[in-house]
């Protein structure tokens, strides 16, 4: 019977259209998630841009925001087309746009692939920026009266408290810089004068760390000053006293935070690529069904016409 | 009829659709309130060591119960909506709806009234360095940017350095211990967690009252070096802020719940009216109350009195018989006994009603 193949395909086509519509809306939601992740990443970079010398690259978050917005738009359009596909009258106006739309989808997938690659590769840039920025941050810690750097102390203290780290590589970085401002040093004091003269650059160096390096989990009240001097504190051996201050460097802590963020975003983009490819293949199948249906309906109408003609000739 | 409106079939369908959407919105709000209750409870449990935990847990408990009740009632409302336009499935909800209205009204009431609570937060401690974990207090002070109970001087009155780290052979330590009756090592120093990172100066922890111990330091004017707030004030502000910010959210939930209540009542009356007509797709009327407010109230009161009378009819008739001498019951006497019974029950019902009213107020 000529009707059977078309009917079977119609039911399948309805299911296909419904499934495709659901997938489109899922992709829109994923697009929204990518957009908000891009914004979140941008805000996190901005929050700590002081520690990166205001030099960090905003390429990845900007790209994520763009890709998220594009994903929403493209998939919403696809969902609308899908919704209208079961109504032949409405669908005819979308039909000429299908081919360019599929091409746009393909190029969007390429863009997604590029974004995923960047998510994984830009981590090196972040690492280098962090290393440089933290070194300068520790150097400028004391400059709370210099405009442009007056919040460096606060930022660095809050970072050390939040990320549970001390210094760039470890706490000894603080021994190499002067982190107490000259305003609070009594230059007439002998001890201060000794320390200042003990090095070439005239810096007041000491074996102490700021309070933000202290570990609250330590059972002992925090020992900040004279860290390498065992006799300065009761029952203290600086080689075995581990828990008193944070031992990790801030570069490692910050880098692991940012890299985990970028890795999860890259993974999400790869999932989005797979989703888009699935949607694309289903869209192609649907398009094929449509051209088949239009052809078969034409065939059916033409066969009906020839049988009618035969009938009339027979009667005649 | 109270506030009656005409409903065409089209309008009924639209009302059912709108109500279905709104009830699902109300379910989401119920989920939100439940999660808010859980969040508040975990926040309070995290600080359990420094919280006086007798009364505070009332608020998150109420929020969780209200959230669950809201989810349940609004889910039922959406099911009723789905069945309302199908004449065969709607009648089964008929008996259930009265109970639903009572529960939903109770829910609104609890939301409006039950969330105002005065709460006492921070427990007074006299030995924070010993009774509670050092880490908890340190983290508390760093997170809430506070120092001590009321201010940093509270640390001067306790020994917050453990004896394990004190060198008892040192003269300074021995002097300090002997300087007070309890033999505690008191000093004018504070833990590092009191330090304020915003201060431009590296943190001064020890010898705080001694101006000459530090360069360019004056104890009375050095403000930013430490956190100036006490932890009690900081915690109170934090939790009050949390409660205040939930206020508008809860208000909007109340509005949604009330509109679901009103719409469902209209839908119920309109659909029931339509089903009673010959042509179910004709226009029908929807209303809030079948009679006016006063008459409905009288009806409800009569029903309640009937129920009470049925519950306690036997002992009183026995009592009546013993009180009065045995007489032949003339019609006038039965009439008087009825009037007497009615009069007897009225004050009791009145006191019951007044008690309910006062509690609800």
UniProtKB/TrEMBL annotation, chain A:
This is Peripherin-2. Belongs to the PRPH2/ROM1 family. Keywords: Cell adhesion, Disulfide bond, Glycoprotein, Membrane, Transmembrane, Transmembrane helix. The chain crosses the membrane at residues 20-41, 62-81, 101-130. It is found in: Membrane. One of its GO terms (cellular component) is plasma membrane. It is a multi-pass membrane protein. One of its GO terms (biological process) is visual perception.
From TrEMBL, chain B:
Its main location: membrane. It holds the Pfam family Tetraspanin. The chain crosses the membrane at residues 21-39, 59-77, 97-115. It comes from the Eukaryota. It is found in: Membrane. Gene3D superfamilies: Tetraspanin. It is a multi-pass membrane protein. GO terms for biological process: visual perception. This is Retinal outer segment membrane protein 1b. The lineage of its organism: Eukaryota, Metazoa, Chordata, Craniata, Vertebrata.
